[in-house]
Amino acid sequence: MGEVNIKKLASELNLSAATVSRALRDSHEISAETKARVMEMAKKLAYEPNPFASSLRQQKSKTIAVIVPEVANNFFALAIKAIEEVARAKDHHVLIYQTHESGEIESSFMTSLLSGRVDGVLISPACHVANKKYFQKVSEKIPMVFFDRDHDDIEGVKITTDDYESAYNATLHLVEAGCKKIGYLAALETLTTGKKRLQGYLDALKDNNLESMPALIEGNCENNESCRSKVKDFIAERKPDGIVSSIEELALPCYYACKELNLNIPKDLKLITYSNLAHAELLNPPLSTINQPAFEIGNEAATILFKMFSKRWYDPNITISLKSSIIKRESSRS
Amino acid sequence: MGEVNIKKLASELNLSAATVSRALRDSHEISAETKARVMEMAKKLAYEPNPFASSLRQQKSKTIAVIVPEVANNFFALAIKAIEEVARAKDHHVLIYQTHESGEIESSFMTSLLSGRVDGVLISPACHVANKKYFQKVSEKIPMVFFDRDHDDIEGVKITTDDYESAYNATLHLVEAGCKKIGYLAALETLTTGKKRLQGYLDALKDNNLESMPALIEGNCENNESCRSKVKDFIAERKPDGIVSSIEELALPCYYACKELNLNIPKDLKLITYSNLAHAELLNPPLSTINQPAFEIGNEAATILFKMFSKRWYDPNITISLKSSIIKRESSRS
DNA sequence: TTTATTTACGTAAACGTTTACGAATAAGAG
DNA sequence: CTCTTATTCGTAAACGTTTACGTAAATAAA
């Protein structure tokens, strides 16, 4: 059928394909009059350039990949929102991949991107990691930016938050609120992100001569049942009077657990957590949060990626840290 | 540099490019031995086929587009999660586009997809609509499925929920809880989705001989300040004793408004809303919700799209409706 | 006027696949 | 032994762009 392409335009206008192509790209080699004619005909025939032919020829895809553990997550959804907006402004397309925290899935995504399908990658790595070689392989070939999560043994451009300081300060907040037995719900333990948060928690307690109670809740917290019961067991057995949660997915189970255990938040247990819940204020009680600037992280990561495209970015190994904000609410009140 | 492609593989193996290509695609025309040799060499050289060359030649992109108003939204994030999973299982890629409720942006996305960039489109249309011609244009050329939202004057394959029934039943629930002046926070009024919800609300009141109080809150509810004050004004001026909210983004402002107006939920005002908040139960008070099966909608829409690809779907104009579930909680207790 | 430069366009190759067509060899049928 | 068929591979064209190179005409420089 009459698919309209450059050749069709050319024959319609009695021009060569080359001229049409140049006219469409507003080349200086083409007269204003010809450009106008070409544009008009392109519009008339509703010409849409074939992106694959372009990409094949130019070795550019005008597409970026975003690899995240999950889309249905307050933090990542916000980051993706920002990324898509930046990409749109730069007339680029956005491919989404979910790893579900699996290193193998991540690996297969990453290596498939070596085909040239995308011009750049934004990644927040999975916490279950298999073999990290693919990070190096990909970043050697295409610009790549880590956001939020990263591995300390992998070099690269990284946009993170002040994980250590925010965990330290959140813990300190609970100490100042009078907590003596502060537990920590760990996650992301294989990632720099998780390690720093844990260290911030540990150091804050050490600096205040308090014992630490870190607990690693294994398993995917999507599965609420098992996750809730583990959190409940932790609270029941260790009887903390305060909890710092390293992820939102471990904090909300505390609410359910406390209900079941007849514990009052904040009287019996004070709680603060990393979270991007938009309405933490509406919870019962309002939840104290360490709020990461998710949108800004996505925005910054994408912006830097585009700078890398245009060679306006030279440092291949840098970590940029954005500040989280601690919002103290009822759940940690003394 | 030594980019490895089919020609490279071919020369390395003393074969023709055609043979290598066929071997990689497991063609019956190639001997088992040759296939093995090719596979081995491909693995050894870490060959990744160029997707643009493939797509150009085959006129297939192995990519689908998802067009949504926003990614950072509980409903759409869940739907996208499901869609990505289905696409992954089918070895397809997922492009994400946000319209921010703008018909013009939507139009430009849609028409750009006419280039063949994607094999299919999943769309939840923007509520501000300019000129709907592009829906027809696109669906004539590539398989397309509407999900959650749709226009009644556009034909197509649509996956929705029981908007009328759920709104009717939610309203009925408030009636039975003793409400006499039930307000309605309207949204999506240009879409079938919004119209049906409104009608369900209106009919439920009519059937119970009660007056209706629909209120259309204009403007993007992302902007919480203006949205909140409008909701607050509505409650203060019209003094409803019950509210059915057509979207989550209008229900949560009710919590803030009631705080400011010193109204108690549910004593002074009972509230029920469409929502995909994972933890409505933890709000103060727990929020009664009309819960749409977001994941299932995404899953169903994507599954049908792939059936359309393989011609296992013939009905070009059908609406499949999934059931929402009404979860009654404290916010609407009598 | 001659030469050099600019302007505006065309020709053809290239990007990396896939595939229609053809051909050579081997195997089977008669 | 000849003829048919199956098996296995190669040649070359095609997908729709972009771009290096060439060229003719027009203009400027000498």
Quick overview:
Chain A is α/β, with parallel strands linked by helices and 334 residues long. The first copy, chain A, is built from twelve helices and twelve strands. In chain A, helix 1 (6-13) crosses helix 3, helix 5 runs parallel beside helix 12 and helix 10 crosses helix 11 (248-260).
Description:
2 copies of one chain form a homodimer. Chain A is an alpha/beta fold and 334 residues long. Chain A is built from 12 helices and 12 strands. The first copy, chain A, has a 6-stranded parallel beta sheet with strand order 2-1-3-4-5-11, sandwiched between helices. In chain A, strands 7-6-8-9-10-12 form a 6-stranded mixed beta sheet, with helices on both faces. In chain A, helix 1 crosses helix 2 and helix 8 runs parallel beside helix 9 (192-207). The first copy, chain A, is elongated and about 85 Å long. The mean pLDDT of chain A is 95. Chains A and B meet through helix 4, helix 5, strand 2 and helix 11 of A and helix 4, helix 5, strand 2 and helix 11 of B. The structure holds a DNA duplex (30 and 30 nucleotides).
